């Protein structure tokens, strides 16, 4: 696999990328201006009306700085880990001293809370000091360690400071000493995967082989019989943490069979995608083509059969899990923001290894739709669950739809999504370009200025676009040497009439795995790329029961939705006429400038319906209407109301 | 209220009715031939592959006949209570000695298990002797007492034997001494309503006022502040029984506000309807028009806004509860068989008090559809949950649809539905006629021979029909006196061209509250009644999001459904053409003779769809098809597969 052909592509270091994009800046600027400061207040329990995080307080107690009891969930430490990771990425763009000082304070605190043997976990240190590693099923120790590790690697990469990294290396060494196939070591693996991909990242900065060996061990051991988690709960020390785990099904955590036998995506969607990321990493590092095939099979199962049009996953509200092929209910699904982030991370790894643009198509879909629907335009409200159809009246507590929230929430008791969104937005740059020694893959159409080394060449790129509101971009490329560079421009699956001008001259590029390939010695050249991506009706595979007889609207990577504020109540009664082409309309004032879509259709009218009749033989009338759709990512940024992605189609003879 | 006009109607004693109906006998014969003997084996834990009931074993332990531990749920005693009640009704029709001997054995056993002070409940006697009445929220003591009471009254009415009744009178006396507004008594009420309607029944046979006073007390106390259940759980003795009640919302048990302020149906649907039954009883007995208005408001809220077309209720799988107006999802609902039985019992009471046929319309809908879908044609398999749309592949354990079973189950750990179906089928006669001193209301079109006293007159009725396969019935009426009798023949809401012949001559009856009223002195007369009830497309109020753009098929009281076995897989892709009248077709071989319905339509075809694409801009093709529908009550009697009630409509311009 490590032939020249299969040399893995790399992201450009975040320090080298400066994003200045009309569409994305409205979100990315939130990270530094709003989310990081707001989350800092949250971590310190200073936000009125938001559930307390307890997170820093726990570290202060564990560090011996104060007394008190542990607060929050067993994985509460990850809040600060994801905050630090977001801070690290933000510092790559702008080395803000006061923010860095705040991070250094937290890093010192974490170091103080670290046990002598390297162990870090405030829940087990404060609350259950005798129960370390006795409940891998629910304890989240390895999951939490993974997020801290990721943060430490990110902070080291951002600042060059080693303190956090060194702390975490001591912890990682303890983990490597504790777990493994050798006699005397624990033959366990995490109840929530995450440590595996984090150990790979640690290997990437340290080149210390034992870290990926342990990551591989966790993957290889997973699902062997007898099942570790089922055995663990028979031990005396086992103490149940979550009531819902009192009956445990190994498939929930992808431990039902060995990972190489897993060809369909099962169980908890976030656990699954984090594991698939590590599987891709290990497949590459160990040149394991069989494991790569497993990754491809899992990816295909998701995107061909188990993924929402918005790039979200997890069809069941209960256990936040995958269900079965084509089971994609729109109003009771989970579709967790974190799971889409996991899918994007998995897709990025697959793109790096295989150089196929189809992975980026899905990464882009997940980022433009579900990542962004997860956060309000004010940066202070978040969706955990991302349904495709919401009727607020029916989203009641203590019902089957209790998990569906009709408005974004301030923060959550289990606060994985908001900091995960923050770190993803702050590291958006990693998705734009992928490079090897001589090739530059241009994946996402996001305006930026970037400088980096390509072997001995220094390259300067400037990408300018108003995507997704229009579909042209100008790429300026400067290189200090006239050696050959290959530019690989992604042709997205939705692009029509894809055209390239090089310095004003049309260029007919060869196409390889979904990329337009251009060889040249770019000293100072300008490429103008244009394509069409008109708003279109999109249909689901007829096997998707929930979408049969319905159409969605997409324009480029953006899925559109109807909102009550534009279309009145009862969106379920709207029938769209797909024989009339939808019209695009740029609204400068809305959401800072957005292309809305207007379609024609009818509405099932309740006007002549006797309100005292629930069922009746007289058919309701149809009224002509105009339908207005906005990008799904912006829904619920004006007022609470109904929302709908899949619109009934006016099916004619 | 107790004016002549409002004198309550009464059912005819079951002993006097002999049902010999083509449609119903296939079920009612099951009661004696299959269900009662089968349930007897279940109660004795003799059925392989079925979850053990433990029920009689618990009584044997409580009676001191054997040692061992309590088994089953806290309300396990109700299994035998409902079995005895069904046996009692069966004995009304046919005084089978060996069955009666079996019942007497059980009654002796119950008496032996009774405590000295009258208390009966094997869970608390065996397992928690110190905790009597300390957990009304979850303990189900009063609920269990209620079912035993109902059984005892039924057995007394059937056989004239007092032993069981006397046992239960002692228990009822203890309950009346324990609960009430007086100082020193407990100011509590049941966590699951049932005792209230049972105490009214005990009053009806004993004429002992304290029983309805206590029933009224339970109703009046309910929902007063501070909430009894929330206070109870603060006490030391409180011991949580069900994990899901660790966070308790009083609305679940209709104790959130006083019952007279409850104008919408809320919470657990079975609890609700059992309470509404008692509210109607008490409204009548205390001539409480205000309470009757509350009952009417609750009824209207259910049937106008919260009831499925099949007469089932409970839109949420979680907590088996009502949700909100027009929230009627078809594939994730609970629609418990017991809740439809509760609705029928409530409707029967309202019909007795108000003499309005609209209540019987709903009773009939619940009985013909959901009661019967609850039981397989073999009498040995039962549905608890009655969805209107099932895709078996998606009904997976550990998902949001885990409560939906694609096939009827043998028995259940919490086995309320099967014995409830048995007692309902065995007491079907109570719904057919309602009478006062001089009026005979004919409600249901079920062939029967009936003899009874109407004040000083002896009346003989014979009703012959092949309803619902055709819509004619012949009513022969004989009376030994020529005093005036009023016959009130229900004109169902679905009847067209309703015609009456008396002794061959057309008769134009006056219509009162949905009944054709015929005064006469019927010595030996024959009425021939006919109406049309063709198969029709029915629509839901457009506010019902789940049914917008869809049509159901009904013929008379029967709701129809599509099954995979007749229509192929993926029923969601079927579009029915409602502009073409559906055709009826009598199939003699199917289900012992059934009218099936054939309609025309199209199917969204997957034939040209690239199976690797989940979403695509190319619209799937439509194919012409013929659609076959069968009565919903018969679904899943051939083979497992998809089922669908609400069919997408081919909506035309």
Can you walk through the features of this model?
Two copies of one chain form a homodimer. Chain A is an alpha+beta fold and 653 residues long. Among the domains of chain A are: 433-532, Maltose phosphorylase, domain 3, CATH 2.60.420.10; 536-649, no CATH class. In chain A, 35% of the residues lie in helices and 19% in strands. The longest helix of chain A is centred in the first third of the chain and has 22 residues, at 22-43. Chains A and B meet through helix 13, strand 15 and strand 21 of A and helix 13, strand 15 and strand 21 of B. Strand 21 of chain A pairs antiparallel with strand 15 of chain B, so a sheet runs across the interface. Chains A, B: Residues 439-522 form the Non-reducing end beta-L-arabinofuranosidase-like GH127 middle domain. Chains A, B: Keywords: Hydrolase.
Spatial strand order of the main sheet of chain A: 2-6-7-8-14-10-11
Shape of chain A: globular
Work out the helix count of chain A: 18
Structural class of chain A: alpha+beta
First CA to last CA of chain A: what distance?
54 Å
**Largest sheet geometry of chain A:** 7 strands, antiparallel
Task: Count the beta strands of chain A.
Answer: 24
C-alpha Rg of chain A, in Å? 25 Å
Share of helical residues of chain A: 25-40%
Q: Give the DSSP E fraction of chain A (strand runs of 2 or more residues).
A: 15-25%
What do the pLDDT scores of chain A average to? Answer: 95
Which stretches of chain A are low in confidence, meaning pLDDT under 50 for 5 or more residues running?
none
- The oligomeric state is homodimer
Largest interface: A-B, 74 and 74 residues
Pfam families (chains A, B): Beta-AFase-like_GH127_cat, Glyco_hydro127C, Glyco_hydro127M
Domain Non-reducing end beta-L-arabinofuranosidase-like GH127 catalytic (chains A, B): 16-429
Keywords (chains A, B): Hydrolase
Domain Non-reducing end beta-L-arabinofuranosidase-like GH127 C-terminal (chains A, B): 536-648
């Amino acid at each position: 696999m490590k032939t020249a052909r299969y040399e893995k592509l790399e992201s450009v270091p975040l320090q080298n990328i400066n994003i200045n994009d009309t569409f994305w800046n409205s979100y990315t600027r939130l990270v530094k201006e709003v989310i990081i400061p707001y989350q800092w207040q949250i971590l310190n329990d200073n936000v009125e009306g938001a559930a307390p995080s307890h997170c820093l307080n726990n570290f202060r107690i564990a560090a011996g700085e104060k007394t008190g009891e542990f607060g929050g969930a067993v994985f509460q430490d990850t809040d600060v880990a994801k905050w630090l990771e977001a801070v690290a990425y933000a510092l790559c763009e702008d080395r803000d001293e006061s923010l860095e000082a705040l991070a250094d304070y937290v890093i010192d605190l974490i170091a103080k809370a670290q046990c002598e043997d390297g162990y870090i976990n405030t829940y087990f240190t404060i609350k259950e000091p005798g129960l370390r590693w006795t409940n891998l099923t629910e304890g989240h120790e390895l999951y939490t360690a993974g997020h801290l590790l990721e943060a430490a690697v990110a902070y080291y990469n951002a600042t060059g400071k080693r303190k956090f990294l060194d702390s975490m290396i001591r912890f990682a060494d303890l983990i490597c000493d504790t777990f493994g196939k050798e006699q005397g070591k624990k033959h366990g693996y995490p109840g929530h995967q995450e440590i595996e991909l984090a150990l790979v990242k640690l290997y990437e900065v340290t080149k210390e082989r034992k870290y990926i060996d342990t990551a591989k061990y966790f993957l290889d051991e997973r699902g062997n019989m007898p099942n570790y988690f089922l055995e663990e709960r028979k031990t005396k020390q086992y103490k149940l943490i979550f009531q819902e785990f009192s009956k445990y099904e190994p498939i929930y955590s992808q431990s039902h069979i060995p990972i190489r036998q897993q060809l369909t995506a099962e169980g908890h969607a976030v656990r699954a995608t984090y594991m698939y990321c590590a599987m891709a990493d290990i497949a590459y590092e160990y040149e394991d083509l069989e494991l790569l095939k497993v990754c491809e099979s899992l990816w295909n199962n998701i995107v061909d059969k188990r993924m929402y049009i918005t790039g979200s996953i997890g069809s069941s509200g209960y256990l936040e899990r995958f269900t079965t092929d084509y089971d994609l209910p729109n109003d009771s699904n989970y579709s967790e923001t974190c799971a889409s982030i996991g899918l994007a991370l998995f897709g990025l790894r697959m793109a790096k290894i295989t150089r196929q643009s189809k992975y980026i198509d899905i990464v882009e879909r997940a980022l433009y739709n579900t990542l962004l629907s997860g956060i309000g335009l004010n940066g202070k409200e978040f969706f955990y669950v991302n349904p495709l159809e919401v009727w607020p009246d029916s989203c009641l507590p203590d019902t089957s739809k209790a998990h569906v929230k009709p408005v974004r929430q301030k923060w959550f008791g289990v606060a994985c999504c908001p900091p995960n969104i923050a770190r993803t937005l702050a590291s958006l740059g990693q998705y734009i370009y992928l490079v090897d020694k001589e090739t530059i893959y241009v994946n996402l159409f996001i305006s930026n200025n970037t400088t980096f080394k390509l072997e001995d060449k220094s390259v300067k790129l400037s990408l300018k676009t108003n995507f997704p509101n229009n579909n042209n971009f100008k790429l300026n490329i400067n290189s200090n040497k006239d050696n050959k560079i290959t530019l690989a421009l992604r042709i997205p699956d939705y692009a029509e009439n894809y055209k390239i001008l090089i310095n004003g001259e049309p260029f007919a590029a060869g196409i390889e795995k979904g990329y337009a390939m251009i060889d040249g010695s770019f000293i100072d050249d300008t490429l103008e790329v244009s394509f069409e991506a008109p708003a279109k009706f999109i249909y689901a595979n007829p096997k998707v029961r929930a979408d049969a007889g319905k159409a969605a609207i997409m324009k480029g990577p953006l899925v559109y939705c109807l909102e009550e504020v534009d279309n009145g109540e009862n969106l379920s009664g709207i029938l769209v006429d797909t024989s009339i082409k939808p019209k695009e309309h740029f609204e400068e004032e809305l959401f800072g400038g957005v292309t809305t879509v207007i379609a024609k259709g009818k509405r099932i009218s309740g006007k002549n319906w006797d309100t005292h009749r629930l069922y009746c033989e007289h058919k309701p009338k149809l009224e002509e209407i105009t339908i207005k759709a906005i990008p799904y990512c912006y829904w619920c940024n004006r007022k609470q109301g109904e929302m709908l992605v899949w619109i009934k189609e006016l099916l004619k003879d």
